[in-house]
Amino acid sequence: MESQVTTPVRVQKVLYPALAAGLVAAVINAVLFWIGSATGAVPADLIIPNAGQPLTIVPVIISSVLPALVAGLVFFLLIRFTRNPLRIFNWVAAIVLLLSFASPFSIPNVPIGMVVVLELMHVVVAGSVLIAFNKYVKR
Q1: How far apart are CA 68 and CA 75, in angstroms?
Q2: Dihedrals φ, ψ of 109, to 5°?
Q3: How confident is the model at residue 11 (pLDDT cuts 50, 70, 90)?
């Protein structure tokens, strides 16, 4: 059964679950990064084109928290302006996740192990956001 949010919601009430989801994703993705680095799946000398440097833990953390906060703002807007915000958000999140799967392939000479680690990181962020917001609506 679809939950509908009918009471006015303050942006902080949505951003808190978003921040929590981002922090959880950042921790899990940091572990994935360290495992990938330790196993050689994430090479320390592969230059990421947009960054101009190899992948480090800082962009991993930023790329985990920032999308979760943006998702929080999107969810807030959906709550304010739509009748079925959770259903719409879940669909948008699934589409964004699918589109995000293309980005690791934009790195020149990317090893398959790194692609796997980066794809897992995308799933972690999307999963933590979806779990947090679906729980939020149930409250």
Answers
A1: 10
A2: 60, 35
A3: confident
